[in-house]
Amino acid sequence: MQSNKQKKQLSDTQWREELTPEQYHILREHGTERPFTGPNWNNFESGTYYCAGCETPLFRSDTKFDAGCGWPSFFEPVSEGVVDEVKDTSLGMVRTEIRCANCGGHLGHVFPDGPPPTGLRYCMNGHAMHFVPEH
Questions:
Q1: Which domain holds residue 127?
Q2: Are the beta carbons of 124 and 73 closer than 8 angstroms?
Q3: Which cofactors does this protein require (predicted)?
Q4: Is 69 assigned a catalytic role?
């Protein structure tokens, strides 16, 4: 099913104005934060994680788990089509990069070493998302 929502596209200058320096580095320059330093790696409250670049809901807290890696980790996105997978051959290895399907922002990577039911570990940068608790 195709969404009628228009994808968020901004100029580099507009992204720099809208995002914090940490968010810009991660979302637009494909950076990463040091483990155990970003927001929400150890948050286990109930709620939803949204893209910091465009407010797209990405992950629910009931899919979050402690992978021990120092980044927020989830076993599946909130729904199909909210993230895109891109082959990443940087750093001399082959990985699967995860980007927001709406704004193209770099979120992190997915690995095949997660828990059931998916066996996946979406290892996300905390600065690439913001958390909204359930009320």
A1: 12-133
A2: yes
A3: Zn(2+)
A4: no
